[in-house]
Amino acid sequence: MVEALRAYRSMGQLLWPHPAMTQPVEAVLRQTVLSTVERNHMTQHRGGVLTVDISPDGQWIATGSNDRTVKLWNREGRIIQALAHGDTVHRVAFTADSQRVVTGSLDGQVRVWDLAGREVHRIQAHTQPGWWVITSPDGQWIASVGGDNTVKLWHPDGTPAQTLPAPGSPWDVVFSADSQMIIVAQTNGTLQRWRIDGAPLPPLVGHRTHVWDVDVCPRRRQIVSARSDRTVKVWTLEGQLLLTLTPPTPAPLLGVACGSQDGAIVASSRDGKIHAWEGDGSFLRTLQGHPATIRGIVIGPDETWLVSASDDGTLRVWDLATSMPLATRRGHADKVWSCAFHPDGSRVLTGSLDGSARLWETFPQTPLREASAHKGVVRAVAAGPVTSTQLVYLISQCCRGPVPRRETLPIPTETARAAHSADG
Which residues neighbour 312 within 8 Å (Cβ) at sequence distance 6 or greater? Predict the structure, then answer.
């Protein structure tokens, strides 16, 4: 699907694309989208699935539930281990090396498991429910957030590193891309920051009510936060407020995400809408389709598309550049609470209150990398930054048959080259 989208966009850079090119490309894109299917339906939980994660190497899946268990699955959706907790499992997260999974539950415990299902460490991290647990990008730290108004930092071996007071009722936590800073969203409307050695940094003050989500934009070295005062704030890592983004509709915002490059900033709202801005704060558009609250929003690894998970029981796939709704995946019987991309973007994992996790896969029925023998005239084309395999596919699939006239097409600054095959 990613390659089909790129081809579609590259075609859009041509000033007057011939129907012999546009119609087959659009047909291929529709076929690719329609072939986005559910690969596996994982139903071993006896309660709602509240949290899901896919290991960085793409080989393992973890799901956590209010049935007080964590399930460990292989990449094909076959259950490998069932791990018991003492209370609802609110968060699961794989370590950077994909060798362990860290889990946090409402009894305040953080546990570390190996892939064989052995409990490596059990940490009584908090005296109140544990809301969030994450691992650092460099694999050297575990961070947890609890209802006891503390943020805890741990070494991978389970030994404590820092206890950080967070009197503003912490909810969400993220690491900076270099793992040298932690940023915590608090329900009192502030973002609290610490250096990895525990040294506090000035809080980020600007929201008036609950901050529900926070993300880090690595390339821009920025922090984005969403809150129920219907605004998105954009800050530098050093703490300077750069932008305040306000969507055109008044519903409270629950989620926010930004790409790792220079792409869009997106925020999801309680009324089922997704709002998108350029990195400079220019409003792009509102994506509409969900009739209910959006619980999860994730930008794909190459920032070509995003997925949203909603209380309407669906997963929706969107083209970030055009706002084109690419697919609506139905199958869950209750709210979809969480979602996660496979590292290569080829699959999406969802968890639902219906007690199931589902793994969706995208694959074109006619492979984009298949370059079949030409049987007719091939016109020369020029397009934007696409791969050679994509360009071969476009030529072989879209430009067969007689050419009504010779055309000169405008060539963008960045181009790929195309050549006639010997047989046309």
Answer: 272, 290, 291, 292, 335
* Residue whose tokens read 């706002």: 323
CA dist 177 and 190 (Å) reads 21
> Confidence band (pLDDT; 50, 70, 90) for 301?
confident
**Token code pair at residue 280:** 């400079």
Q: Give the list of residues 6+ apart from residue 280 with CB closer than 8 angstroms, or none.
A: none
CA distance 90 to 133: 9
Q: Which of 391, 390, 368, 366 is nearest to 378 (CA)?
A: 391
Looking at residue 252, its pLDDT comes to 87
Amino acid identity at 344:
D
Maximum Cα–Cα distance for the chain, whole Å? 76
Q: What is the CA radius of gyration of the chain?
A: 23
Mean pLDDT, the chain, integer:
78
Q: Between 138 and 407, whose confidence is greater?
A: 138
Cβ 44 vs Cβ 82: under 8 Å: yes
Classify 28 in phi/psi space as left (phi over 0), alpha (psi -120 to 50) or beta: alpha
Q: Please give the C-alpha separations between residue 66 and each of 49, 86, 118, 230, 340, in angstroms, as whole numbers.
A: 7, 10, 21, 30, 19
Q: Kindly report the number of other CB atoms within 10 A of residue 320's CB atom.
A: 22
Q: What is the pLDDT of residue 319?
A: 86
pLDDT score recorded for residue 67: 93
Ordered alpha helix ranges (H), 269-422: 388-398
Positions of E strands within 68-180: 69-74, 79-84, 89-94, 100-105, 109-114, 119-124, 130-135, 142-146, 150-154, 160-165, 170-175
Which residues, at least 6 apart from 118, have a Cβ–Cβ distance to it below 8 Å? none
Q: What is the DSSP letter of 239?
A: S
Residue the block writes with tokens 């954009």: 234
Is it the case that residue 187 has pLDDT exceeding 90?
no
Q: How confident is the model at residue 391 (pLDDT cuts 50, 70, 90)?
A: very low
pLDDT band at 410 (very low <50, low <70, confident <90, very high): very low
Give bridge partners of residue 316 from the DSSP assignment: 308, 328
